[in-house]
Amino acid sequence: MTTAPVAITCGEPAGVGPEIAANAWAALCNDMTLLWIGDPRHLPDGVPYREIDSAAQAASVCPQALPVLRHDFAAPATPGTATLANAQGVIDVIARGVHLALLGKVSAICTAPIHKKVLIDGASFAYPGHTEYLEALTDAPRAVMMLASEALRVVPTTIHIALKDVPRTLTPAMLRHTIEITEHGLRTQFGIAAPRIVVAGLNPHAGEGGAMGHEELDWIAPLITDIAASGMDVTGPWPADTLFHAAARARYDAAVCMYHDQALIPIKTLDFDRGVNVTLGLPIIRTSPDHGTAFDIAGQGRANPTSMIEAIKLAARMAYA
Questions:
Q1: pTM of the model
Q2: How many helices (H) and strands (E) does the chain have?
Q3: Residues 243 and 308 in one domain
Q4: pLDDT per residue over 89-115, tens digit each?
Q5: Residues 127 and 234 in one domain
Q6: Which domain holds residue 295?
Q7: What is the three-class DSSP state of 256?
Q8: Most C-beta atoms within 10 A of its C-beta, which of 34, 57, 89, 150?
């Protein structure tokens, strides 16, 4: 069992990240060791924190105070109004957290929400989101995004691209890799000895025998058959509109979907507050709350920290297993 702390990266400082991180620390500090990476000026007023020089010092500080690995930003933060000058700091904190995880100094990272447009406008961020940036930072061949809760686990094969681009972006190699990484993650990080995976169709009614699209007949179904022949418990393609009711969910451990909203709408409908973003296929453990920066309520004390708490707890379970 590792005793290294779970690190929380600050995310967009003008969003709800600092306050939900502080609330999560308060809820969990008696059960595990955490640290926060960011500019302490961005923490909510009154949060007891103590700056540390290394991750190893976090255990001696927590739970009396939030251990902070200080990372100075260019400017203060105004809740609800992003400052482009701070964009590079957000990017650098993610890289710092990944570096610590790769070295084993922290057991996992839990990333607070970022605002992609702010990063693009303020620092020419070259990635569609966290997942792709983490993939690049760790030299992973391809990372896979899973959204997990007690009610459901879903994995979108294509992620942050326009819906019109999905059919030409989706390939047999991409889908195969997604299924294989999902199965491996369920076994090694979730402790499921024989994972059951279902695959959603791309088209309505999974193409309905070619009446609503041919991808299922042409290559999706043959690919699933081929993967199943290797011994993996994977079935499909199934119509997405009948895949997420209670009786259907009881038959699988994770659903591999074809695009972002096909996966995220069901889990956010079923368990919005407790959904956790998990990145599979990395050499480190990374989780994140399943919501955005929420500029409209930032700094008002209204942000619900439940998803952040669940994300940290899941990261710890995966790391300390």
A1: 0.90
A2: 12, 12
A3: no
A4: 999 999 999 999 999 999 999 999 999
A5: no
A6: 1-140+282-321
A7: strand
A8: 34
